[in-house]
Amino acid sequence: MTTEAPLVSVIMSMRNASATVLDTIRSLQWQTLTAWELVLFDDGSTDNSVNLVQSVSDQRIRLQRDSRRKGLAARLNEAVALARGRFIARIDADDICFPVRLEKQVAYLESHPGVDVVASRAVVFSGRDLIGVMPAGSDHRDIIREPFRGFPFPHPTWCGHVEWFRANPYDGSLTKTQDQDLLLRVCSRSTFGGMPDILVGYRQPKLEIGKLLRGRFIFTRSIWRHGRAFAPVSSVIGGMAMQVVKAAADIVTLGLGLNRWGQRRRLQAVPRDVQDQWPALCDRLQSGRQ
After folding, report:
1. pTM, to two decimals
2. Is domain 8-289 classified as CATH 3.90.550.10?
């Protein structure tokens, strides 16, 4: 097993992720950039997640566990504190990294020294089915253009300088939209970058109305808390009203049973090259489970 010092610290929290976490770990193990470590916090799982992770023989995996449930934001802050890499990359315990993800994002950051964090596009999937693509802004100006609509900056694709993550912790009290809250808080003093590449597979079998509405509520509150620092109050109130309208649209869409349509209306079309790559990635993951 490699003894390289980690260039990238991948940070992840899991809770009851036994059905998916090994796929996520396998997708890290097939990275073309091998100098990574996984700082993985278990957030009080009650299933077999911990045992599954412990069964993986890879010295790059650093599993941290206790019986408490603190939530994603608090666990990510703890993972940042333990990171040894120059860069930090995010991934969730049910998502998939494409093989060149870390290599491409590190190359981007090294060639754009003024960028604090870069994100890429992500393909949304359910099983072997591709649903659409989560967009990422093309550059800092594009990413922060309409902050109260939400930043086109997919959280599981973030990769950035460790110093930025340590200087800008997540709000550990939040249970949803921790990423959007953080971006609102720091967008006036940070520089973000976007990549057109699709480097992450984001697992989303369906939209859940409870999670959507809770996210809308928390982000609306974040707009009021942080938006006044860089925008007129009238714009802040308009942004909050926009989120209320979006919440109403979510209720109508899912109430009519239009779940898959609701997913796709938020997404871009899946490019042909990704459609062609996806079956091979799924087969590779399936062979690893056998």
Report:
1. 0.95
2. yes
